[in-house]
Amino acid sequence: MSKKDEKSPKHEPMIGIDIGGTGIKGGIVDLKKGKLIGDRFRVPTPQPATPDAVADVVAKVVEELSSRDDAPSPSSPVGVTFPGIIQHGIVLSAANVDKSWLNTDIDALLTKRLGRPVEVINDADAAGLAEARYGAGKGVDGTVMVITLGTGIGSAFIFNGQLVPNAELGHLEIDGFDAESKASAVARERDGLSWEEYSVLLQRYFSHVEFLFSPELFIVGGGISKRADEYLPRLDLRTKIVPAELKNEAGIVGAALEIAVHHNIAK
Q: Measured between alpha carbons, how far is 178 from 173 in angstroms, rounded to an integer?
């Protein structure tokens, strides 16, 4: 028996995989610290990103991570994120991915492909869990809303540390438009908006969400969170709003955390 197999599951790290539109990233997660052990590993998302093609890349990423000295046991579960609504392991939306994913049992697909237990969670939900446990939302009671600004607008609804899954707040209709069609990071670039102009759209969006849910805290994630000083100071809200802390690792960490909690490996 190898040293890996002798590890107690209560103490071993977990593998998290983050499926995105341009890249599939993975890492080995220290669940006590909420940080990656070693570098993350990234492979470009195949085009077209069909279920079988993506499953092959996920397997490649897991294989690389599993070869490392710090990897968990080969039979340990793997947590995965996906940019769509996931209910009972089934993909129910595919707004920014290949439409062939609709109604696919992604849990079953990846479990069969990897030969080990796999559970999939919405990518924004995973980022929200990670931020609530380890990042900007740590220790905050009540409602914490994590909003990711990227290709679309992702959202995670956390109440007293517990996830309310699949809150698709990027698809709220505001002024006759799907919110993410006007206020996502990609929309800002597409429309050539200055930060001041973009802040006006974000103000409209966050004010609406604030009115609906009265959260204790907004956390803004996505790649654009690195430029938070360009737009957050321009927003006038009752609710405190801060940039995410885990940055590009949030999805990986949240995926590992979700499956660890499900399997009673972490509380």
A: 5
State yes or no: cis peptide before 72, omega within 30 of 0: no
Provide the terminal-to-terminal Cα distance of the chain, rounded to the nearest Å: 28
3-class DSSP assignment, residue 26: strand
CA distance 45 to 175: 34
Contacts of 119 (CB under 8 A, 6+ apart): 77, 79, 80, 89, 107, 258, 259, 262
Q: Would you give per-residue pLDDT tens digits along the chain (267 residues)?
A: 444 443 434 557 999 999 988 899 999 999 999 999 999 999 999 999 999 999 999 999 999 999 999 999 999 999 999 999 999 999 998 866 789 999 999 999 999 999 999 999 999 999 999 999 999 999 999 999 999 998 889 999 999 989 999 999 999 999 999 999 999 999 999 999 999 999 999 999 999 999 999 999 999 998 898 899 999 999 999 999 999 999 889 999 999 999 998 887 766
The set of residues, in sequence order, having a beta carbon less than 8 Å from that of 243 and lying 6+ positions away, is 136, 219, 220, 221, 225, 226, 228, 232
Query: 263: Cβ–Cβ under 8 A, 6 or more apart, which residues?
Result: 9, 77, 117
Phi-psi region at 182: left, alpha or beta (left = phi > 0; alpha = psi -120 to 50):
alpha
Distances (CA, A) of 226 to 11, 33, 96, 230: 33, 22, 22, 9
**Gap between the Cα atoms of 251 and 200, Å rounded:** 28
- 213 in Cβ contact with 145 (< 8 Å): yes
Q: For the whole model, what pTM was predicted?
A: 0.89
